[in-house]
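pasting ATPase family protein associated with various cellular activities (AAA) for the record, 658 residues
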Amino acid sequence: MPDAAALRLHAEAGLLAGRLAGVLTGAFPQATGAVAEAITWLDSAFQAARAGRDPATLGGGALARPPADGPHPLDRLAGALALGATDVDLLLLAGMAEVHEGYAVVLRTLHPRGEALASVGLAAHLLGPGSEARAALRRRLEGGTLLRAGVLRLSGEGPFFERSLLPAEGLWSVLGGGHDWPAGLRPLAVPLASGGLARWFAGAQTAAVALRERAACTLLVSAETEDTAAARARALAAHAGRDAEVLAWPAGADAALEALLGAHALARGVVPVLVPAVADPAVPELPALAAFPDAALVCVRSGGVQPRGPRPLLALAAERPRPAELRTMWQESLPELKRQAPTLATRYPLEPHQAELVATDLRLRAALVGRAPTLADVAEAVRGRAQATLATGVARRRPRARWSDLILPADRLAQLREACARLAHRERVLERWRFAETLGGGSGVRLLFAGPPGTGKTLAVDVLASELGLDVLAVDLSRVVSKWIGETEKNLAGVFAAAEQAQAVLFFDEADALFGRRTEVSDAHDRYANLETAYLLARLERFEGLAVLATNLRQNLDPAFLRRLEFLVEFEEPDTAQRLALWRLHLPAAAPLAADVDLEELAEHYPLVGGHIRNAAFAAAFLAAAENTAIARAHLVHAIRREYEKAGRAFPGDFTER
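structre below
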């Protein structure tokens, strides 16, 4: 069935054709040839459009005949811009060639340059005779709403009345029920999700009123990422009862594109949600939208923006959902795992639109495999969604370490378990007990692991991540820290964005390279290095997940950084009992040991750290396999000697030779 919007345009063009036939008949009473054919075609189009109705009842223009089945794009556009009947006639005349090829033939016959378009002169004949009417038309086209709002265009370089009338790019299609946007405006697919946002909506009541009342203002929504800001903006528009369209706003866009955006948005009846694309992410330039008579939402990353123009502006910051809100979010997004919502809230503090994407993936998986989703499925879906977002210098790994793999003193293990408990019980402490009201910064957990290489710092990170059901994002600081001024901060922003998207444990090894004591300022590089450290400290405080920083040299760290940590875990070289446990851990029960192997003597005689013990056990196994024998004392001692050599330490010798 033909679209009702397109049928309305056909009908109104036909009725306008009747008026145009009357004008031509009066101007050319003895018309022959092409003009006579034009009059005949226009009259036939009019007869089809009036469908037996009395012509006397068809006056008043298109606005006097609103459709019974709801507002048409033409009526929405006219109402928003306060267009009159004459304005609508000009728009219909400009678009007639798009309705039927017969109109194009007629217009080509009547155009002074033979174009299949309506000329300004033809519009003057249609709207009334006399020089006063022509002067009024010229004023209407040169300074009126139609051109200023981007609804109509004038083409051609000749005399004014020989120029052509055209509707705005793509606008006629929209008036006929089409959905395509012009080439300069690219729609973005952003999920609509509002779970857990009740508190944020309550704080955005003024913005919601502005949307409902169609106030001419810009609502600036800022968040850690543009995607999050766009999703919040779309959710806010829906909360206010408005349809919204999310669009990429190109850098360097001019006033003509702003007018085109306005015409399309008004005809569609949607709120534009604009995501500026900028060369420098630190300073996006906001569109002015000076002539747009409705609210518009502009989405930016938190930080500096560059407003322009006198248009009123309301700013909204997209605060992260609190633990209780995250639980509500997961309950709404994944009702199949409603009982697991507290666990999901702890492990995956996503934004609502991200949770909705994960839920979409899980429903597809459930339909394919024929079972309800599980926590493991959620982890896989989150991991899959985050694969494409890894920043420079970030490597992802999926840990499989267990608490039994970690040989540490009891008090150190207790610290690690306390860190996990902090994440698990955030909702109770921060929300129910209201500690969030006095807490500064984010609700994440930050740990420092300090100790010599090989003492288990990296393994402890993997154990924590496994316990929480998360991956590890390991940051290679040698690729993040740059000699170029300002580049390190940009790289760090990418690191945190990747960690938040992946919902993984963030691991900075050799953290003293970045968190070291701030320098005395002697040049621009020192000043920027201190600014980078300050940025990193502030950003680390806002990180909502688990961040672990490891260092071999605790004394080199900035005291200001140490004060921002919840846990400081010392990793010391293992004692004899711990070394024995490490040997037993790294020599699996299935590995054949010769009778001359005495693990207690190895632990007593060779003061190795866990990393060296693991390496020695592994190397000795390969030596034995090459000889097709069990792992003997000689294999282990040989492998231990190699570890001493790699560490640059003197080998104590073979204790059996003494």
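Residues 518-529 have pLDDT under 50 and may be disordered.
Residues 4-175 form one domain.
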